[in-house]
Design a protein that fits this description.
Strand content: 25-35%
Structural class: alpha+beta
Oligomer: single chain
Number of strands: 11
Largest sheet: 7 strands, mixed
CATH superfamily of the largest domain: Neurotransmitter-gated ion-channel ligand-binding domain
Shape: rod-shaped
Order of helices and strands: HEEEEEEEEEEEHHHH
Distance between the termini: 109 Å
CATH class of the largest domain: Mainly Beta
CATH topology of the largest domain: Acetylcholine Binding Protein, Chain: A
Radius of gyration: 35 Å
CATH architecture of the largest domain: Distorted Sandwich
């Protein structure tokens, strides 16, 4: 055999063998030349991302900030046929090397996303992404019934960068979301929870985004405000009622009792204000304090009026006004309590 022909043949055989190994490597890599960063699925059909959440704890509900401090784990899964492999079990890949659905918490703080997050990839191409958050989730509270209010606490997940024609978020059919039976938060009672899916828009003409909500229904505990705020205020109103039992000649004592009651109510007013955000409407407790202050001011006015009548020689009229005022005051105070706190 000619030496040159022999070398050419060997070179050809080497090229064929190396090319074969290269092809085998591409197949074993699940299609290494594919662009795995693009959305999986067929064009014109949205990619379905399944989600399920586990709310493990609610640490605090902060009225003044309208936020909920909670711990939650959520799991996302979707199918990418390009990632299917022939292994017996799951493999793990960097999320940065494949398509990312871009699911974020809409009403939470900025999520700290790690660059080396890994996902589980099952043989059929199902991708599973796990995330755990300890965060403050912003809310919009309706505080009009405060302190006898109920609130719906939401944690909302949203897909950024994908319209519903490209991606939809749905609850996982096999892994239902769960909520812990007990929480760390005090003075609140969890009465129920549910999940909702829908479309979220920043404006009416803005493109929608697929969204998923975990909603927890909570009722504020009443004993704290009843025994530490409302009952002491009723006792203060009872102290103000005593001016009707003081003789009109002792105007200094009447004014002293009324002024003390008014200053104490103002102190309660500032205490309650520190518990709530700056809102433009009145709560039930606001109305109760306001009408209580009006009653105390009316008592002060009555004290000055009866003192003037007494000094003018009309003691009988002053005493009769005090007698009628004792019962009228109780009727008005009962109406204030009923209409502001009970209805």
């Amino acid at each position: 055999m000619h030496p040159r022909i022999s070398l050419s043949a060997l070179s050809l055989i080497a090229v064929v063998i190396l090319g074969g190994f290269s092809a085998i490597g591409q197949v074993s890599n699940g299609g290494g030349d594919m662009d795995l960063s693009t959305r999986p699925g067929t064009k014109g059909k949205p990619t379905t991302v399944h989600i399920y959440c586990v709310l493990t704890d609610i640490r605090d509900i902060v009225d003044v900030h309208q936020s909920v401090e909670a711990s939650i784990g959520f799991f996302l899964s979707w199918n990418d046929p390009r990632l299917a492999h022939s292994g017996d079990g799951s493999i793990h890949r960097l999320l940065s090397t494949i398509w990312d659905p871009g699911i974020v918490v809409l009403n939470g703080n900025e999520m700290e996303v790690e660059d080396d997050r890994r996902v589980e990839v099952r043989p059929d191409g199902t991708v599973i992404l796990e995330q755990f958050l300890r965060d403050s989730f912003f809310q919009t509270f309706d505080l009009r019934p405060f302190p006898f209010d109920r609130q719906e606490l939401e944690i909302q997940f949203l897909s950024i960068g994908h319209v519903p024609d490209d991606l939809v978020i749905v609850p996982h059919p096999d892994w239902p979301s769960r909520v812990s039976p007990t929480f760390s938060v005090q003075d609140w009672k969890i009465t129920g929870w549910r999940t909702e899916t829908g479309i979220y828009r920043l404006a009416e003409d803005a493109p929608g985004r697929s969204t998923f909500k975990l909603i927890v229904e909570a009722e504020r505990g009443r004993p704290y405000f009843i025994f530490k705020v409302i009952l002491p205020m009723i006792l203060i109103m009872g102290m103000s009622w005593l001016v009707y039992w003081i003789h009109p000649s002792k105007v200094d004592a009447q004014i002293g009792v009324g002024a003390t009651s008014m200053l104490t109510l103002i102190a309660f007013r500032f205490t309650v204000d520190r518990l709530l955000p700056e809102i433009s409407y009145m709560t039930r407790l606001d109305l109760f304090i306001l009408f209580s202050m009006v009653l105390v001011f009316a008592n002060l006015t009555e004290s000055v009026a009866t003192a003037h009548l007494y000094s003018s020689g009309r003691e009988g009229i002053a005493i009769r006004i005090d007698a009628y005022g004792r019962w009228l005051y109780l009727v008005v105070l009962t109406a204030v309590i009923f209409f502001t706190l009970m209805i």
